[in-house]
Every structure is written in C-alpha cells, then in structure tokens.
Design brief:
Layout lengths: L14 E5 L4 H12 L3 E6 L2 H11 L3 E4 L5 H9 L5 E6 L14 H21 L4 E12 L10 H21 L3 E7 L2 E2 L1 H7 L3 H11 L6 E2 H13 L7 E4 L9
Parallel strand pairs: 1-2, 1-4, 2-3, 4-5, 5-6, 6-9, 7-8
Helix pairs in contact: 1-8, 3-4, 4-5
Length: about 250
C-alpha cells in the first residue's frame, strides 16, 4: 500500500467490518477503508450484490445475513476468526407514513430495527474489537422538524444519539459514534423516492448551502475520520449539506 497524499495510510494493518456493505454508503466506506490500507469484511442480505461488492474492493471475507436477525448477528461476530478494529453498520432504512395510513407492524419494525441493531452490534462485538477501535452507526437528521408522516422517524432521530452515547460508556475503550445524515444520493434514496428522485436532487441542489446534494463518498469520508480519530466517542455527527438550515 502506497502513501496517501504524502502520508502513510491511516488504517494500515487494521480490519474494518461493514454491515450493509454491498451498496451505497457501506460500499463507499469499504472502498475508502481499502484506500487507507485496511482489510475489509462485508456483510449484506443479498448474496449476488455482496459478491460483486466484495470482488470490487478485495474483501477478505463476506457474510450473507439480515443484520436485524439477532441470532445471525451474534453468529457472525462469534464466527470471526480474529480481532477486528472497526465496524460500520448502515443496514436499515426510515419509515414514513401519515398517522391515518400507518402500518402498525411496519412502525413497530422501524422502532425496533435501528436501536436493536446498535445494541446487538455493541454486545456481540465485545471482545472482538480491539481497544481504541470503533463502532459507527447511521442515523438521520430529517425527523428533527415536525411534519406530517415522519412521526416514527422523528422518534428514532431523537433516540439514537442518546443510545450511542450510552453505548460508548458501556463498551469503552471501544468508541461508539453516530452519523446523522440528511438526504444522501444513494440506492436507498432512489428506492424511497422512486420517480421523484430527480426532482428532489434538483430541488436540494438549488437550495442547499453547499450547492449540491450529499453523496455516499461524503458520508464515507466522515466514517473513515471517526475510525481514525481516536479522541471521538459518544457523539453524533451531522452531515446534510446544510439541509437543517432550511425551513423544509
């Protein structure tokens, strides 16, 4: 591995696990981790997409499972052959629905999914992550302003930072941080917005203070920074291009 921009690779000799690493932010983080000298292990639900991503980044290992399956998550960490240094968990997505149309089963799933993934990763990675290593989770900023249809997402937006801070105390000296993203131009956003995607891109590009939409590479760069800066733990880091500064 050659030096990066005149400096040694920041993750040289380290191992990064990316849960939800077959596309979007997870895959881009794996790319950047490799560029910084890390070995990477990828997990995802879809074996075909996972195989393609693993080949692209030269992953040293893969695992196909649903990260929200607690038994499968425990088995994954229990089966790791050696120590690791960092985990990024990107699995899961938001749930949007107005109260009158809310699917209660889906709402319950959304309420459980993100916090229990964080708890599961923190618990089952104990003893696997080297001291000073990190667990990084994905949250969001979109639910901070009350609006129709985002009640469940609003609750998670408030809850996840508190959970990340508590976990950081419990699993220290392993570090725990949360990335709170606004709109990011990823396959997940495409699946949520459908034929409204281009309209949303154009709208945000015209009003965001940064003059463009946030890309997966932007979020991945933040994730790499949280892995390499060993003074950071228990905090939530916003990345939304200034979206919260707008009225909508």
């Amino acid at each position: 591995m050659t030096e990066t921009y005149g400096r040694p690779p920041a993750l040289l000799g380290q191992t990064v696990v990316v849960i939800g690493g077959s596309a979007g932010i997870g895959l881009e983080t794996a790319r950047q981790a490799r560029a910084e000298g890390a070995d990477v292990i990828l997990t995802a639900r879809r074996p075909d997409a996972l195989a393609t991503a693993a080949q692209e980044v030269g992953a040293i290992g893969t695992a196909t499972f649903d990260a929200n399956d607690t038994d499968a998550l425990e088995a994954f960490f229990g089966g790791l052959p050696g120590k690791i240094d960092h985990v990024l968990a990107t699995a899961g997505g938001p749930y949007y629905a107005p109260l009158a149309e809310m699917d209660f089963a889906e709402a319950r799933r959304a309420i459980q999914e993100h916090p229990m993934l964080m708890v599961g990763v923190a618990r089952f990675s104990t003893g696997k992550v080297r001291p000073g290593g990190s667990l990084t989770f994905m949250g969001g900023t979109g639910g901070r302003h009350p609006s129709h249809g985002i009640g469940i997402t609003s609750a998670m937006t408030v809850a996840l930072p508190a959970l990340a801070a508590s976990l950081a105390v419990e699993v220290a000296p392993v570090r725990v941080n949360l990335i709170a993203a606004g709109f990011v131009d990823t396959p997940l956003s495409a699946s949520l917005l459908g034929d409204q995607l281009d309209e949303r891109r154009d709208e945000l590009s015209s009003v965001l203070p940064i003059g463009r939409v946030v890309q997966a590479a932007d979020v991945a760069a933040l994730a790499i920074h949280l892995m390499t800066n060993t003074a950071l733990t228990g905090a939530t880091y916003d990345i939304d291009g200034g979206q919260q500064l707008l009225l909508r």
